[in-house]
């Protein structure tokens, strides 16, 4: 997980539901058992709440009648993930009526109190207190028959089990992704670069498959806000201080397109950054994908071609801001951000056959919280392949494990996740005002890149730190989206 240098503008949120499984016959047979099992459930609530989720606990469901009573209440809570606490044996009639109606991942949790039974002093009561796994196979089989297979089964001990705690935390992070993605308002401003067919995206398909709403934005809509920002005002002065405190501003090295950050470019970057922060608040946006050119020498062109610094600051604060109108990669960046692993706008650059690596990066906005060391900002005399000039962001991604997520589209118009894991290696990057890192992938760079491109990605992807392919697969499954793992 990242250690954020730039804090979130909004806290992580998710709503999870849970209920406990038991058998009503037991309660009269074994006085005190119900209270003891409810104590186990209370402990699970504490564990879940420690992962920044709001828990709705629907209590003990111990017969079919209570399952039908609980169902409308669970559905009304609209959970991002449903946890079923398998505190002891229960019949699948307590579960089948619920699971068939769920449109969120259902996770069975079987965490027993004892590492092993005290066999010499064993009793039926002791066994029932630790029978968490007993009905798991029954439940998973019934879920399949209902056409709604469970998303996961977490098996372990109630306390002192880091593996089980990690699994619970992973599903809470998935809940964060699902919560925000299902409700996100993602701005879409401008148009694709001419003839970039892989960038074409049907906004309604994103709503259909993910739930997010695409807000169609006009570049000119920002002009009143831009004009209202006083370059000599406190907001801009404070933004300049933020930028200079966060970025290094070195002298140029080898690229004639670069120069030391100019006062004019700093002021423009600061004014535009303030404009962006005001604009996303006005439009209630959770992210933005944009590309627009504007008339040469116009105010519009100056505005829309200088988003990079402000967008990088916003991306690190939890608002994915994506260049080249790539709304699919904006989604990928949001997913990674909510997993707290970064999510930088990226593509492949030249291969380094000497290091068996490939440069991974992009011009434009990046997730500054995954930078290795202090990021650099340079003035660029021109943005290659695009109109305009101004400040560019440059840094290495943190060294260590990395994960890539490309959100693409298959031949039926359905989304496809393409995922790979690798390593960010130390090494020099070109001083071009663009972000890059040396990515190394198994089994070797040639084979990996061939496998990646044959999987049908878009040319952009989101780049995060750590190895999280298995979590991304679960997220894809939760939305019914195909997922291809290029590296295993």
Give a short overview.
The chain is of the alpha/beta class. Helix content is 36%, strand content 25%.
Outline, from the CA principal axes?
Answer: elongated
Beta-strand residue fraction: 25-35%
Radius of gyration: 25 Å
Strand tally = 19
Helicity, in percent?
25-40%
Order of strands, widest sheet: 11-12-17-16-15-18
Query: Which regions are unreliable across 5 or more consecutive residues at pLDDT < 50?
Result: none
Number of domains: 2
First-last Cα distance: 21 Å
The DSSP helix count reads 16
CATH fold topology of the largest domain: L-fucose Isomerase, Chain A, domain 3
Structural class: alpha/beta
Second rung of CATH, namely the architecture of the largest domain: Alpha-Beta Barrel
CATH class of the largest domain: Alpha Beta
Please state the average pLDDT score: 95
What does the largest sheet look like?
A: 6 strands, antiparallel, barrel
GO molecular function, one term: L-arabinose isomerase activity
Domain L-arabinose isomerase C-terminal: 343-482
EC number: 5.3.1.4
Pfam family, one: Arabinose_Iso_C
């Amino acid at each position: 997980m990242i250690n954020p240098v730039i804090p979130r503008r909004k806290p992580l949120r998710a709503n999870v539901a849970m209920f406990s499984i038991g058998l009503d016959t037991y309660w009269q047979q074994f006085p005190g058992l119900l209270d003891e099992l409810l104590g186990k459930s209370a402990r699970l609530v504490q564990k879940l709440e420690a992962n920044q989720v709001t828990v709705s606990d629907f209590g003990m469901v111990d017969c079919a009648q209570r399952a039908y009573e609980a169902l409308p209440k669970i559905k009304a809570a609209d959970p991002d993930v449903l946890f079923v606490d398998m505190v002891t044996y229960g019949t699948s009639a307590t579960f089948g009526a619920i699971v068939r109606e769920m449109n969120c991942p259902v996770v069975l949790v079987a965490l027993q109190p004892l590492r092993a039974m005290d066999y010499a002093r064993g009793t039926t009561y002791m066994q029932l207190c630790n029978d968490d796994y007993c009905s798991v196979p029954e439940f998973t089989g019934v879920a399949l028959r209902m056409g709604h297979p469970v998303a996961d089964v977490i098996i372990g001990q109630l306390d002192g089990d880091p593996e089980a705690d990690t699994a619970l935390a992973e599903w809470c992070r998935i809940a964060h992704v699902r919560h925000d993605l299902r409700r996100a308002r993602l701005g879409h401003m401008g148009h694709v670069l001419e003839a970039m067919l892989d960038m074409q995206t049907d906004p309604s398909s994103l709503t259909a498959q993910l739930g997010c709403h695409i807000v169609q934005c006009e570049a000119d809509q920002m002009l009143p806000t831009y004009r209202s920002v006083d370059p000599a005002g406190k907001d801009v002065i404070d933004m300049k201080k933020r930028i200079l405190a966060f970025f290094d501003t070195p002298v140029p090295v080898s690229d004639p397109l670069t120069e030391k950050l100019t006062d004019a470019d700093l002021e423009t970057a600061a004014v535009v950054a303030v404009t962006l922060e005001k604009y996303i608040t006005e439009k209630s946006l959770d992210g933005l994908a944009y590309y627009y050119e504007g008339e040469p020498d116009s105010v519009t062109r100056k505005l829309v071609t200088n988003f990079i610094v402000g967008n990088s600051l916003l991306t690190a604060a939890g608002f994915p801001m994506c260049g080249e109108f790539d709304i699919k990669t904006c989604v990928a960046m949001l997913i990674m951000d909510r997993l707290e692993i970064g999510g930088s706008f990226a593509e492949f650059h030249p291969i380094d056959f000497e290091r068996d690596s490939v440069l991974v990066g992009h011009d434009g906005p990046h997730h500054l919280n995954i930078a290795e060391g202090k990021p650099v900002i340079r003035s660029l005399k021109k943005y290659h392949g695009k109109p305009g000039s101004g400040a560019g962001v440059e840094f290495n991604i943190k060294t260590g494990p990395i994960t890539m997520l490309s959100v693409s589209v298959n031949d039926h118009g359905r989304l496809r996740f393409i995922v790979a894991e690798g390593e960010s290696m130390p090494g020099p990057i070109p001083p071009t005002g663009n972000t890059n890192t040396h990515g190394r992938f198994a089994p070797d760079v040639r084979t990996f890149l061939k496998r990646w491109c044959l999987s049908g990605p878009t040319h952009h992807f989101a780049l995060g730190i750590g190895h999280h392919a298995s979590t991304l697969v679960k997220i894809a499954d939760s939305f019914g989206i195909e997922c291809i793992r290029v590296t295993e």
